[in-house]
Amino acid sequence: MRPSHLALAVLVAAVWGVNFTVIEIGLDHFPPLLFSALRFLAAALPAVFFVGRPKVAWKWIVAVGLVLGVAKFGLVFVGMDAGMPAGLSSLVLQIQAVFTAVIAWAALGERPSALGTLGMLVALAGIGVAAVDEGTSGPLGAFALVVAAAAAWGVSNVLTRKASPPDALNFMVWVSTVPVLPLIGLSLLTEGPSQDLAALRSLDWQGVGTVVFVAWISTVFGFGAWGWLLKRHPASTVAPFSLLVPVFGMSSAALFLGEPVSPLRWCAAALLVSGVALTSLTPRKRDRSGVRPEGDGTPAPTSGSTPAPTSTPAPTSGSGSAPVSTSA
Asked: How big is the CA angle at 176 (ends 181 and 50), to the nearest 5 degrees?
């Protein structure tokens, strides 16, 4: 990987890590579901007019939009609003790699290797340590919401694998159009019109800045740059950089929000990142048909032709079968 490509990969990981701190700041300005809706609205507009027509069937765009946009991000924002720290959220969401591997095993017959299975157990141990740490300092209910968000992310990863989008940015922009109305509807039902209107009436430049960052910098730039890297390098080369996300997430939360990082949390981080690395970056066994699983690390073509499923630059996370991303 060229130094400029290496720097871009680190920059994307840094953006996705700092994004959790920005979300925490944004939650001081907006109710969580409204904030999530504004994030997707800003990510979709005006980009949807410049990325061209969707390159996959609408059923996949709608399915991923509902599972990733409404379920995953809705749960993350609500969990963080309920007291889940930004740094810990960036760490706990990494368990999506384990959910992805298990769901891919059940739905696609992609059996993890022995080393990958060990990685799942190590990652689950890290989640257990993080739960113990959070149980002594914060609400376990909020912790559970973020774990549920990671499970929803795992489902969306497998759906994205099935969709095999040839253009990560195009796919993410069109996916961003789906959650807007459902999230606004849920916000009106659960957070109330008065709270939503009060947030919009009191909007200031800091609130606008958080929406711009999570929509344009984290979503549009982040997924676009990640997809660009995946078109030029094997997934196995790009994916490890996503393991830097919780490093930047925990560091930025400690620096800008004053979040403490206890010894237990460092232990959880070491276990979870190690487990995710083993789960995500080790080859899996052949599936039941004897066919090598998709995403085997073969470099994607760099021409304008549509990539084969084995090198889909999809904005997904961690089973080793699909490129990893860990943006919130």
From this structure: 120
Residue with the bigger pLDDT between 301 and 106: it is: 106
Cα distances (angstroms) measured from residue 247 to each of 17, 171, 231, 244, 324: 7, 27, 25, 5, 16
C-alpha distances in Å from residue 114, one per residue of 120, 221, 240, 319? 10, 36, 19, 14
Give per-residue pLDDT as tens, 176-190. Answer: 999 999 999 999 999
Q: Of 213, 195, 192, 223, give the one whose Cα is nearest residue 38.
A: 213
d(CA 36, CA 208) in angstroms, rounded, equals: 13
Nearest alpha carbon to residue 117 among 105, 128, 107, 129: 105
Question: Is the CA virtual torsion 124, 128, 130, 134 positive or negative?
Answer: positive
Which range is least confidently modeled, 208-222, 224-238, 296-310? 296-310
Contact 92, 146 (CB under 8 A): yes
- Cα separation, 112 vs 118, in Å, equals 10
Burial class (CB in 10 A: 0-12, 13-18, 19+), 57: exposed
From 62, 75, 84, select the one nearest 33 (Cα to Cα): 75
End-to-end CA distance of the chain: 26
- Tally helices (H) and strands (E) across the chain: 16, 0
Integer Cα distance of 26 and 47 in angstroms: 22
